From TrEMBL:
Family, as annotated: Belongs to the flavodoxin family.
Domain Flavodoxin-like: residue ranges: 4-168
Gene3D superfamilies: 3.40.50.360
Annotated function: Low-potential electron donor to a number of redox enzymes.
Nucleus found in the keyword field: no
GO molecular function terms attached to this record: electron transfer activity; FMN binding
Cofactor: FMN
Source species of the chain: Crocosphaera chwakensis CCY0110
Protein's name in the database: Flavodoxin
Amino acid sequence: MAKIGIFYGSTSGITEEIAMTLRQKLGEDQCDIYSMEEDFDEYDQLLDYDYLLLGCSTWGAGDVQNDWRDPLFEMELDKPDFTGKTIALFGAGDQVDHGTEFVSALGKMYNHFQKLGATLVGEFPNDGYTFQYSSALLNDKFVGLPIDEVNQSDQTEGRINQWVESIRPIFLNN
């Protein structure tokens, strides 16, 4: 069984908590986990895994979290080949105070890795969220798992469980 690489950037700790929970639910022996700030050296680390969970919160006007900026910029220049890699995205956002760009960083990451040849999986329904706009919507579904710990923390565990069950056959039956 192939190992899963979980890479996350987290400023306030929410995306880190999600990453740790995902590792626990998928099996700690199945997943290696990396903080983009503390454990990440170069994007080649991502290429060591066929299965990736990438976590990023949204900041500013739909921007990726700071720890992801340099690696994404370097990949934009070098255009590494992610063909054969399966990626699922997760992230945190605030749909009330930042509802005009709710989890839009996931949309940016989706577009970025799709251009590099990756197969992206793990879409999630937008039911139960209240926001104005998100570039992470594709065909009325989010391109990954959106978590709003600020306004809907009571739904976090159920959403994570639902998402893990949807990706489990792809990531663990390989």
